[in-house]
Specification:
There is one protein chain. By secondary structure, this protein is of the alpha/beta class. 35% of the residues lie in helices and 20% in strands. The chain has nine helices and ten strands. The strands form two sheets. A five-stranded mixed sheet has the order 2-1-3-10-4, sandwiched between helices. A five-stranded mixed sheet has the order 7-6-8-5-9, with helices on both faces. The protein is globular and about 65 Å long.
Length: 243
Amino acid sequence: MKLKLILASALLALGVSAQAAPIVIKYSHVVADATPKGQSALKFKELAEKYLPGKVEVQVFPNSQLFGDGKEMEALLLGDVQIIAPSLAKFGKYTKQLQIFDLPFLFDNIQAVDRFQASKEGQALLTSMSSKGILGLGYLHNGMKQLSATRALNKPADAKGLKFRIQPSDVIEAQFKAVGANPQKLAFSEVYQALQSGVVDGQENTWSNIYSKKFHEVQAAITRRQNVHEDDLLKESEIGRRI
């Protein structure tokens, strides 16, 4: 009788285990679904749930729905979210190594960026924050940066005196100061209102972010950067917390 009870208990435990709730992965980002980053997140959800049916549930939160720029890294470290996809410019607090991608004139073209990121040195950067509990899963293209402002930007001097929203990067801040502009670090979710109200005069972003967030509605001029070196610098990174 004792053997039967033990066996029955084991079978019961197995049945409970087989019906356990799936592992929930919260994937948070700050842009719209209809962007390269947004589409990548949805594809990750599709494939993860396809190949791990019933074992994994991926919940995607776009448009800063769950956490904005200022909180998503903290949320990642606390375990409140498992994957985020911030710009590489936002990791200065955790590592200075990734600031290499904010330097102007470093890469000749986007192919050069790809070669570097695929190299031993580029791949090593993905683990540069592992001691802090953050692991880079890979690099994600999100498009090249464009500038917009309340007036046309045809030469560097045209930016003088204008207030630009920038990402939280000291390197990017120095670039704008070098041409006489006044850079202001603001969360991505605050950009439209800041442009509309005149808190800032311009911003830098990818075409997909500009269009999906309708920045063009509150900017008189959007100018593609003519220098390919600077265009090619903006890359996105999917970062996940080391388990």
